[in-house]
């Protein structure tokens, strides 16, 4: 299996400002946690953290995001913004729409509001946006898990009927 590299990702990206910095990791506790730390350390807007595995991936409402190695896409983007807190939720909604449109290029997909993408009524994309503010630094970490190659045996028993 070919590992993720910043150069291979940039060669397939049309983004102008996202991905100026790309950290590709074999394993990380959570891409959101790593991106948050980068944000507090001064990393530029649009920095990306990708991982082949998350050991403590998480979703909304404190739920776990199952992240087996070399199966799926686990990523977070650092977004520096002056948006008011009320408008920040639009980032998550917009990401959900974009993810749904992207998945729909390969198979029928639907959006379960606010931002879960479903295929055959099973969740294949989860999005977690977190606003961070400390000592004059304010940014959003937008995390996304995309189940690309998940197998039924990769899932805990309680998610077999929910995740895809």
Notes on the protein architecture:
Helices cover 21% and strands 28% of the residues. It has 164 residues and is an alpha+beta fold. It has a single domain (6-159), classed as 2-Layer Sandwich (BirA Bifunctional Protein, domain 2), CATH 3.30.930.10. A hairpin with a 2-residue loop joins strand 5 (116-119) and strand 6 (122-134). The longest helix has 19 residues, at 85-103. The mean pLDDT is 83.
Over the alpha carbons, how many angstroms does the gyration radius reach?
A: 15 Å
Instruction: Let me know the average pLDDT.
Output: 83
What structural class is derived from the secondary structure elements?
alpha+beta
Percent of residues in helices comes to 10-25%
Sheet with most strands: 7 strands, mixed
Number of strand segments: 7
Strand line-up across the major sheet: 1-2-3-7-6-5-4
Tell me what portion of residues adopts beta-strand conformation.
25-35%
Oligomer: single chain
The SSE order reads HEHEEHEEEE
User: Quick one: CATH class?
Assistant: Alpha Beta
| The CATH homologous superfamily | Bira Bifunctional Protein, Domain 2
Distance between the termini: 22 Å
Count of discrete structural domains: 1
In the CATH classification, which architecture applies?
2-Layer Sandwich
Which SSEs are present, and which pair or pack?
Blueprint: H1 6-10, E1 22-25, H2 31-40, E2 48-51, E3 73-80, H3 85-103, E4 110-112, E5 116-119, E6 122-134, E7 137-146
Parallel strand pairs: 1-2
Antiparallel strand pairs: 2-3, 3-7, 4-5, 5-6, 6-7
What keywords describe this structure?
164 residues, alpha+beta, BirA Bifunctional Protein, domain 2, seven-stranded mixed beta sheet, 3 helices, globular
